[in-house]
Request: fold
Amino acid sequence: MLVSLTAPKLCAKRFVGPHHFLGGRFVPPSIIDKYKLQLPPYPGTSMCVRIGKTLQIDISSMRENYISPEFLEDQVDADPFDQFQKWFADALASGLREPNAMALSTAGKDGKPSSRMVLLKGVDKDGFVWYTNYESRKAREISENPYASLLFYWDCLNRQVRVEGFVEKVSDEESEQYFHSRPRGSQIGAIASKQSTVIPGRYFLHQEYKELEGKFADGSLIPKPKHWGGYRLKPRVFEFWQGQQSRLHDRIQYSSEVIDGKRFWKIDRLAP
Reply:
């Protein structure tokens, strides 16, 4: 593979590999014509185009033989929140781009599940917090069925954490505080985007954004939309997974139980 930023024509002549990525302010017309490239308009210098055949891969043969230290019952914390904090600290230290990215899965009253990636914005003994549009599909499904699951996947550590529980809205004060801690562009974007609704095109978003950007150009406080705020998932089940050789993975499950009015966490090992 070759990535050429400043001399794509010269590089294209000399390079004989299967993939050639062109970048920079100018892609020669001869290269565009030869490879029938469909180049989008771009405002600056950050454009890349791939030419050449797509690599053919047998998906069924793709696998990884994980190598990890054993994750044993006598090593885990009695409290799953403490165990999560330890693993999350490891994910932060590993240099992952977004270790707080998590798959949120919900299902409405029709039982049809849907998933999407969201960002964890807070975690403590009360639960896991994220923010979104209260008129989105996930919000609608949560209103119909307030039980959801989260999944964190940290590839370089061979680890994932699954969390199941009940979902509730955070307080207006929490949502207000977080909203105004965001970059102004993100605040405007939250108002401009009617999340999960059908729109005529990307230009429509830009138009809405530009109008709002002009409205708040004086630096005045941007009001938080009533339809925007946070959710908190209050866990009932945790599962900590660590990949091992020959698919003999470690799976440690914490289940919330109440005995004599007191809540405690039952720890079990699950077969991989």
